[in-house]
Write a structure and sequence with these properties.
The protein is an alpha/beta fold. It has twelve helices and eleven strands. It has three domains: 84 residues, Arc Repressor Mutant, subunit A, CATH 1.10.10.10; 100 residues, D-Maltodextrin-Binding Protein, domain 2 (3-Layer(aba) Sandwich); 104 residues, 3-Layer(aba) Sandwich (D-Maltodextrin-Binding Protein, domain 2). Strand 3, helix 5 and strand 4 form a beta-alpha-beta unit. The relative contact order is 0.15. This is DNA-binding transcriptional LysR family regulator.
Length: 310
């Protein structure tokens, strides 16, 4: 059997025009028909029609349709490898480079920890393809105010924004866990489990905010009582809280994703394992309407695709 010709199938190869190949490459790089359409200045139905036409001509499926976006098949990987260089060189030689090369940076904001550990690694492939990012970290409410004022394009928020001035979609759930270093866990293990909340009052509490929002929520949800404790250390970065707790400074309540490695290695120990652990939903928020910057949709789609796996 003859190997697949990237511009056709076995037998008489088809000869798709360059527009089909340009559209294919845009979809391949953007990860969705919608994002590719914005990058190319085409309608989404036009992009879909062109990809279907190319699939008919090559007699191969090029993309697997997903709930959000598309995934390239092995045939698409091979085709992209063969045509990307020539198409990019032709665009550069004729002065008609892709619109994405001229796109403005995407201004993304959110919690420092979630951006660093989950969001930015998920966006790394887009950066290698020319997407530029400007990242701001901070607390949800100030960032949402700045989004309304036009300072950001997208905000990862730890709560759904109030009102109708912003558009929000669920991004990911985070589970909260009560943790400490093994030495503290061993001391607490000598006390009856029913005394655990009271016993923790004798252990230094490490938190990221003076009003203890995460810890207070855990106490209400799991223990059914109010927290009556002051922070020994307050530092506005959960990664610093994690470092202090791992070093034995005291206990805290952290998102599981943040301390999963320490729990797996034994550097941290769960102090409690409730059947119904507190869950918080994060949201991806933007102003209503379509941005003039096509890369905003590309970043948005990639985050929504990656979020459920976090």
């Amino acid at each position: 059997m003859r190997p697949l010709d990237p511009l056709g199938a076995t037998g008489a190869p088809a000869q798709p025009d360059l527009n089909l190949l340009r559209t294919f490459l845009a979809v391949y790089r953007a990860g969705s028909f919608t994002a590719a359409a914005q990058l190319l200045g085409l309608s989404q139905p036009t992009v879909t029609t062109q990809i279907r036409s190319l699939e008919r001509q090559t007699r191969r499926e090029l993309f697997e349709r997903l709930p959000r976006g598309v995934a390239p098949t092995a045939v698409a990987d091979e085709l992209a490898t063969r045509v990307a260089g020539p198409l990019d060189a032709l665009a550069e030689a004729t002065g008609h480079g892709p619109r994405e090369s001229r796109a403005e940076p995407v201004h993304l904001a959110g919690p420092a920890e979630l951006l660093s550990i989950r969001a930015l690694p998920a966006l790394a492939p887009l950066v290698t393809e020319g997407v530029r990012l400007r990242v701001t970290t901070g607390l949800t409410e100030p960032l949402l105010d700045e989004l309304r004022a036009g300072r950001h394009d997208l905000v990862i928020a730890t709560s759904r924004p109030r009102g109708r001035t912003l558009s929000a979609v669920p991004l990911a759930d985070e589970e909260f866990v009560l943790v400490a270093a093994p030495a503290w866990a061993d001391r607490l293990a000598r006390r009856p489990a029913a005394d655990r909340p009271a016993a923790l009052h004798d252990v230094p509490l490490i938190t990221y905010a003076e009003d203890l929002p995460i810890v207070r929520r855990y106490w209400r949800h799991v223990f059914g009582r109010r927290l009556n404790c002051r922070a020994a250390v307050s530092v506005p970065d959960l990664r610093a809280v994690l470092a202090l707790v791992t070093a034995g400074a005291g206990f805290s309540v952290l998102p599981r994703y943040l301390c999963a490695g320490e729990l797996a290695s034994g550097a941290l120990v769960l102090l409690d394992a409730p059947e119904d652990a507190p869950i918080n939903t994060g949201f991806l928020v933007q102003r209503p309407g379509t941005s003039d910057n096509p890369h905003v949709a590309v970043v948005r789609d990639r985050l929504l695709e990656a979020g459920p796996t976090w």
